[in-house]
Structure formats: C-alpha cells, structure tokens
Design brief:
It contains 18 helices and 20 strands. With 477 residues, it is of the alpha/beta class. The protein binds adenosine-5'-diphosphate (ADP).
Length: 477
C-alpha cells in the first residue's frame, strides 16, 4: 500500500510527546513491512540545521486561504528505504521558538497554522506523481484533512485516497471561533452539528471523526473509554454515533531507540539475561542527580508533561506521605507552573530524597528509565502512554492507574501471578497511589519477586511488527 502520514510532530525532527514517537515509528514499521510510506510534517526551526541532508523540492504551494492565498515550499528527506519525509516550509507559521506554544501560551494563530498545513497535505496527496492509497492524519492538527479531501472529490478528484484519523488525545480537539471556518474554503454544509460545528465553534478533531473513513485511537481500552461521558470530553455521544468506524490499536515501541543493550545514552548496558548493569545505571543516576548513592533504597521516577491529565496532584500528595519512608524520587518534565512549583517545594523539603529536573532532556529520560526501580504513572486518563512500556523494557516496574493504554499494557499480580510486571491501582486518589507505592516497597524487599517482575517486564513485547499489522487491517477495511 501507499500511505501518506500527516502529523504536526515526528520524531526525530520534532517532538512534544508520544505523538511524535508514534508517527515516526509507524512510518518506519510500514516501510519495513514492505509498504511505501511517506510522512508530511511542518519544517520547524532548527530541523534543516540538524538534518543537512534535507533537499528543497521544486514545488510551490499557493493555496486559497479564505479570500487570500498563502504560499509555502517543500523539502524532502529520504529517511529509510521506502520512507520519505516531506517538510512544509512556511517561515511565518513554522519558524518559531516553539511548536505549539511559547512560555506556556499557545500561539494565537494555531488554527491558521494547522489549517494551512492540512491544505498542503491534501495538495500533496492530490498532485504528487506518487499517489497515496490512504492519507493517515493524526490529532486535531490534521482533523480537517478528510473534509478537505471530500471537498476536492466534489470538485472532480476522481481517485481520491481514503482517510484515517488517529486520536492520540481526545482532550485536545482544536476548538476555535467559527470565523476560522471561511478560511477552510469548505462548502457550508461541512459546518453543521454532524460535521465540523461544535456549539457554534469549529472543532477540527470532530470534523476528522465525522469525515474520515476510519478513526483509530492508541489503545483498545481508550477506544471504549472515549465513548463514555467520563472520558468523552464532550464528544462521547458523537463518537458513539461513529462507533462502527472506531478501533483502538495499542502503540508499539521503537526498540531500536528504546533498548538497554545498544544505547549510548545509558551508563552501562544490561538485558533480561544479563541484568547486572541495571544497578550501575541506578548508582550513576543517583550520582548525577546528587542523591545519596545507595543500592538498597528504592528509587522511584517519573518523566511527564506536567499537566492535569498526568495525575500530578495525587502524585505530589502521595509522595508527601511516602517520603517519610526510606525511598528516593526523581522527576523530569515541564508544564504547568503550579505543578513545577509543587515539585520544587518537595525537593526543597526533602533534599536528600528528591531530585527534580525541568525542561526536555532525551538523554536524562533514558537514564531515569534505566536507573529507577519503579516508574510512576498515576494518570487521570491515558490514551496509550509510552513511558510505562519503556519502563517495562528497562526492567523498571511501572506503577500505573488502570486506565486507557496503561491498563492495556501492564499486568498486575491480581491478573496473573505468573506474568505480573507492574502494579495497578484503580481509584484516582493519593491514598490509592500511596498504597501502590507501599506494595512496590514490599516487592523491593522480596528479591525473588522483584527479579520475576523485572524479567516479565523486560520480556514483554510491544514491537511495531504486531501493531503495524493491526493498522494494515484497519486501512484495508
Ligand atoms: P504524552 O504523549 O501524553 O506526553 P506519552 O507517555 O505517550 O505521553 O509520551 C511521552 C513521551 O515524551 C515519551 O517518549 C517521554 O519519554 C517523552 N517525554 C515527556 N517529557 C519529557 C521530558 N521532559 N524530557 C524528555 N522526554 C520527555
């Protein structure tokens, strides 16, 4: 098949979260499975410098944007056999310090930026000599792609590709004032309650759900959850009416990137059969973070965007209680100033037990995954979550709330004594999380059990091979 993937972020070119990892890895996995994949993404600041092999293509976009026209340029990179990446250059929109925001404030013209990007995607799909069978967009930023393709079909595009939309997080829908709609140049009948309209606003993601041929989300449990009021973010009813085209496919892990054996970011390599190096990674991490270097103290860690979704509030409260015990904790992440303040305070009050780092640091992320004994993910909701799967591979036992992809990827002792590789809790409360941390401490003190959990985790397999088969099945449908 020929598949054009479209995403506002793609690892290793740009990344704010799991979306980038997933799209980059899906492209590689499709190509490795013998299909032809191409990915289209914006040319953000710094990409050309980091990837000097990018070539300018003799191709100009000059696309209607309401009553005006907007232009852009095309760049390309042969990234892997059968995998080409296209970059849309539009300096006014994409040559900026941030991807979506700066200093925690979203760019006011995000709707225009990603509408323009979506128009470029459709233009490429239509006019490239390489004709995609299917265009696969991701999240609200490409939500309008299926509608734009349908519109072009109306205008005579005979062999238009089919469309797939993946929802990576329903909490971000791209809802903007209706004045954006005329800039789409779509016919007015796209802006109705069964289409892009959402209580008088335009909702990019809802348009995608309405007009895509298939809709996927990043775990089977999250696919079920989003059709309920609790997780539906106002679209549960709408999703129920489109339930027939909705499936959940658990993200795979890029084990070429996330592995403990050939990884220059780690202090020492280790594996399920040679687990010895893990404790060296722990010591070096403790040293790096200026924590007491002590093998016998269990080290807990988190890497996360500091957002409401990630359960930061119950984590701060549970740690407050659990730091009475002999444990250590480290966190890497950035986001809400209020949560950053909470962690800073925790570190100030417990300087010999808590280390916090703010900002974005790939290398430290690998080192935390490798050096910790336990990884905390107490999310309120979690469409898929990747860090718990990275933790499993790194022999770091995940402690997760049983929601979305966390529930789908971790096995608790109560589910299978033989296969248990993590700890789950259910109630969204600091009490329930503290109890899970106490369980972790008990496991830590029982070496045979600790070894078993780690081994089970390191042997769990979330490789893209099986994930890509599920995408191909969905595409064929
Ligand atoms: P989400 O996409 O909701 O942020 P995921 O768990 O799906 O959560 O993916 C998060 C990805 O981003 C992981 O690869 C994680 O390691 C990475 N990440 C998050 N915050 C940071 C950070 N501060 N530094 C480095 N990597 C980070």
């Amino acid at each position: 098949m020929k598949i054009l993937l479209a995403s506002s972020e793609v690892y290793p070119f740009s990344k704010t979260g799991g979306l980038a990892d997933m799209v980059g890895a899906l492209g590689v996995a499709l190509a490795e499975a013998g299909h032809e994949a191409r990915i289209v993404t914006p040319l953000y600041r710094g990409i050309r410098e980091k990837f000097p092999a990018l070539r300018k293509v003799d191709w100009n976009f000059d696309l209607p944007f309401g009553a005006e026209f907007f232009s852009g340029q095309l760049w390309e990179l042969d990234f892997a056999p059968r995998l080409k990446i296209y970059f849309i250059e539009q300096p006014e929109f994409f040559d900026r310090a941030g991807i979506y925001f700066e200093k925690n404030i979203s760019y006011a013209d995000n709707p225009e930026r990603y509408l323009f990007f979506s128009k470029c995607v459709v233009h490429l799909a239509r006019y490239l000599p390489w004709q995609a069978d299917l265009v696969h967009g991701h999240d609200w930023q490409t939500g309008l792609v299926p509608a734009l393709i349908l519109q072009a079909k109306r205008a005579g595009w005979g062999n238009a590709p089919r469309t797939c939309l993946t929802i990576h997080n329903l909490a971000y829908q791209g809802v903007f004032p209706k004045e954006i709609f005329p800039l789409t140049n779509l016919d007015p009948d796209f802006f109705t309650p069964t289409g892009a309209e959402f209580f008088g606003f335009i909702n990019f993601l809802k348009a995608g759900i309405a007009f895509a041929d298939i809709v996927t989300t990043v775990s089977p449990r999250y696919a079920r959850e989003i059709t309920t009021e609790e997780f539906g973010c106002g679209l549960d009813g709408f999703l129920r009416t489109h339930a027939a085209k909705l499936t959940g496919i658990l993200n795979g892990v890029d084990y070429a990137e996330w592995n403990t054996e050939k990884n220059s970011r780690l202090f020492r390599s280790y594996s399920a059969t040679r687990p010895g190096g893990k404790s060296f990674n722990k010591q070096e991490l403790q040293r790096l973070l200026a924590l007491p270097v002590a093998e016998k103290i269990p080290l807990f860690g988190t890497i996360s965007r500091l957002a409401e979704q990630k359960g930061v509030d119950i984590q701060l409260a549970a740690l407050e209680e659990m730091l009475q015990a002999d444990i250590q904790f480290c966190q890497l992440g950035s986001g809400s100033p209020e949560f950053e303040h909470g962690y800073r305070e925790l570190a100030r009050r417990h300087p010999s037990k808590v280390a916090v780092r703010f900002g974005y640091d790939e290398t430290l992320a690998h080192r935390i995954e490798a050096g910790c004994d336990f990884f905390l993910m107490p999310s309120r909701f979690e469409p898929c979550g990747l860090n718990q799967m990275y933790s499993l591979r790194y022999g770091t036992i995940p402690i997760v709330r049983a929601t979305g992809g966390l529930d789908d990827s971790v096995v608790d002792f109560s589910e299978s004594q033989k296969k248990a590789n993590g700890i789950k809790f259910f109630e969204y409360s600091s009490r329930a999380l503290a109890k899970a941390i106490r369980k972790a401490m008990a496991i830590y003190q029982t070496p045979a059990l600790l070894k078993e959990f780690r081994k089970n985790g390191m042997q769990a397999d979330f490789s893209w091979k099986s994930t890509v088969k599920q995408y191909l099945k969905a595409y064929r449908k």
